[in-house]
């Protein structure tokens, strides 16, 4: 009707942009925030002294010998990171078909955990319970002559492994193997031996994912035959993730985890809405490598993509995120 646009009042009652006008308003209405308390830092330990070796497919991540690992952990504790998840690189000469090195009381993990708890006692040490770093064939379980992964005999070894880690001072054990019944068996054994305060971070919905490639490079643990599809989950399954998670909770898990994170945000969301335990998500090696690679090409802004990725994992419902970006993020949030 009128020719003066300023005097015309369009019929818009709701203007969501009002709350986006200036940074302070945007901060006030931000629904999800990333905090250093959300972060768990996965770290790789190898035998030896005075060495750290960068992992080619994971730029910025290293395999550390225990002495340098202790320095790194002291530094990340200083940055406010509460917890680390420890993964060992085992020399070929110590691997066998049954992964017996995994429960050696003098093993690399056991000695390293003791040293960490002595040097940096305030940091929460989470140890990996799985056989793949220790087996010649690279699978997370014992195998029979046909290469079938044996469930119950594997659980027996996992129990020994978890007990030896608890004995070394681990605060939480984290079974990442996906054998049936292992959470219950480990909880029972820990309690029977008096480790009632050692927690279990259960990899509950762990998918058979191609995103683990760089991690297997880091550990030299790629399976020598076949794949992990008889124990890790199929990417198409969501209801099964709930089933696995409910079983782990019933068996005594303290924290449940979804892995990988980014391609499984719907699973994180569902588990968050249907359970009341803390939910962790593993922002895995391949997710890290993709961001690093694109950033190295100058194709994306690494810092912004990293923060957006982690925030989205939180928004989906994760309380905790295992991420190789933990140190970088802690430095930014610091
Ligand atoms: C195996 C294990 C894997 C990862 C953690 N524990 C790989 C696998 O299942 O083959 C992957 C972590 C990552 O990709 O960052 N027990």
TrEMBL record:
<dbReference type="InterPro" id="IPR013785">
    <property type="entry name" value="Aldolase_TIM"/>
</dbReference>
<comment type="pathway">
    <text>Porphyrin-containing compound metabolism; protoporphyrin-IX biosynthesis; coproporphyrinogen-III from 5-aminolevulinate: step 1/4.</text>
</comment>
<comment type="similarity">
    <text>Belongs to the ALAD family.</text>
</comment>
<dbReference type="InterPro" id="IPR001731">
    <property type="entry name" value="ALAD"/>
</dbReference>
<dbReference type="Pfam" id="PF00490">
    <property type="entry name" value="ALAD"/>
</dbReference>
<keyword id="KW-0456">Lyase</keyword>
<keyword id="KW-0350">Heme biosynthesis</keyword>
<keyword id="KW-0627">Porphyrin biosynthesis</keyword>
<dbReference type="GO" id="GO:0004655">
    <property type="term" value="F:porphobilinogen synthase activity"/>
</dbReference>
<protein>
    <recommendedName>
        <fullName>Delta-aminolevulinic acid dehydratase</fullName>
        <ecNumber>4.2.1.24</ecNumber>
    </recommendedName>
</protein>
<dbReference type="InterPro" id="IPR030656">
    <property type="entry name" value="ALAD_AS"/>
</dbReference>
<comment type="subunit">
    <text>Homooctamer.</text>
</comment>
<comment type="function">
    <text>Catalyzes an early step in the biosynthesis of tetrapyrroles. Binds two molecules of 5-aminolevulinate per subunit, each at a distinct site, and catalyzes their condensation to form porphobilinogen.</text>
</comment>
